[in-house]
Fold these 3 entries.
Entry 1:
Amino acid sequence: MSYPAALNDIIELFEFLPEAERRENLINYAEMAVACARQEGVPYDVEDVRKDVECTDTVGVYVRVDDQDRVHFAIELGPKVQTLTKAMTAILCRGLNGSTVEEVMTVPPDFVPRIIGADLVRLRSQTVYYVLGRMKAAVKTLMDCRRAATS
């Protein structure tokens, strides 16, 4: 399967780490999630802020398309969001920013166990895919709005 280059680099980093190092790196990524927040003065084409049953707090997903048709995400997490969700947020922001709409929409979720490990996938089966689903939904909304504007 082909992934956007930045996401593929992250997958390859995690894939062969021993469990202790994998968890340590996930914690480091969780701490980086605050860097994914919206930037002051940057307009976003789609702003989707809500709390879903799959998550412990509100998550805001913001997406914009640049002049080269590349998508850029910002994600803001409420204070109760779990560490693993924070880690996946940072991983996905870093791994998907600058991708095309098509690349984002075709990213299969099969990479998640390669990053977080099969044990954590079993323990957190609903939440580990949550951020990816929200990002794809925001991109779909963006595509729908763009189609409507050109019709």
Note: The first strand starts at residue 46 and ends at 50.
Entry 2:
Amino acid sequence: MATPGERTLWRTLIERHHYLGHRVPFGAHLRYLIQTTSPHPRVLGCLQFSSPAWRLKGRDQWIGWDDATRAQHLQSVICNSRFLILPHVRVPNLASHVLALALRTVTTDWTAAYGIRPLLAETLVDPARFTGHCYRVANWIDVGLTTGRGREDRQHTRHGVSPKRIWLYPLAPNARQRLTQTL
């Protein structure tokens, strides 16, 4: 987002309409307004990509990571940490279409902003609230559930409280192979 007004609009929309609200993301991040220009300019929603979770059993097993390899390659994973289609917007297949476009865009933008070409995208979907259907339709891969404790549970007291479904999308044809290569 290029202007302070766009950044303020993004924060306002996420705070007002996303169930998690707005929080400053941990680490690197890019934010996008989902917009249409035809027949007239209109904001349809918001997206955020940010640094990935340090440890996700389903993702780590799917890739084939041990702790050392994950530490070497984690920066090549990005997380779709916010996705919002505004409640009044009713466009068939919009969510899966936006995801497909966003993945092409964020790969280039992330490389330009941070000097690292992402190889894999991840997201977490709360199955108590959403089915994850738009990710399935956009060819993301369901690799299971988190333990449900969250990033803030440093004492490991919240196991199973709110498990999320883990979805992955390879951003390169050989993503798994590249993410397991020893540097």
Note: The chain has six helices and six strands.
Entry 3:
Amino acid sequence: MLNNMTQEQEKAAQEFYEENGYWVSDIVFTAEEVAEMRAAHDRIWTLDYDGDGFPLWEWKPDDKPNRLRKIDNAWWINDVVKNAVTSPKLGKLAANLMNSEEARVWYDQVIYKPGTGKGEQTSAGNVGWHQDYMYWQCTDTTNLVTAWVALQDTDLNNGCMSVIPGSHKWGLLNSDGFFNEELEAVKRQMEVEAKPWREEPLILKAGQVSFHHSLTIHGSRQNFSNDPRLCVVGHYFPKGMAYEKKQNVDNIRLLGPRPKQGDLFNNEYFPLAYSASEQA
């Protein structure tokens, strides 16, 4: 299990992250916590919610069993997910990578990549190459980090995420490809032929967490196993992040009915996952 990191370990993690745009932790969540999050998945996909609310973006059952399932802000409707994404265990790691005294939850995602078995190759369920910040251009910083929690041993066989090391230094590209399952087409769209493109698969044990910068290009391919690939994802931002009017993003409305340039994202919709002052 991941205990408190030493200052030397924190510095090494920061340096690796700053150079490569991603970092992989040791195991953060226990087997019992992973089992609880897997059970939360089961409840969420049957629309069995805690409380009377609903997530920011809701999945509805359909007739496409190979389709990727994703909802946003499951912490609003599931207590286990809430406890996970607001956990200081994740918050402190995220704050360290952002070199911030605090980490707040931007939003979360619960993602289900269906298994296709050992049959023919298909693009169904792929996540196209993209940069998270393409969808977050209402902030005054790109210094946000994503924490991807593996809820099973995850590798190329069951569709692990891959990142392009160093791509966070390339700026914001034409990378609106999350739901485009044709990864090579998305790569051409981003016009990165002259860049040092190297795909790094993030092989994780259950309970491990990978972190990546908001500009790091990432995606995932087919799940060849018979079981779904499950994850819980927390997106975090540093202390003092404010609204900047560049794009119409769902999170803007969480600032209230009349948001204005410079408003801080610091209300109850963006819970504090870690604060160095509170831990002192």
Note: The two ends are 23 Å apart (CA to CA).
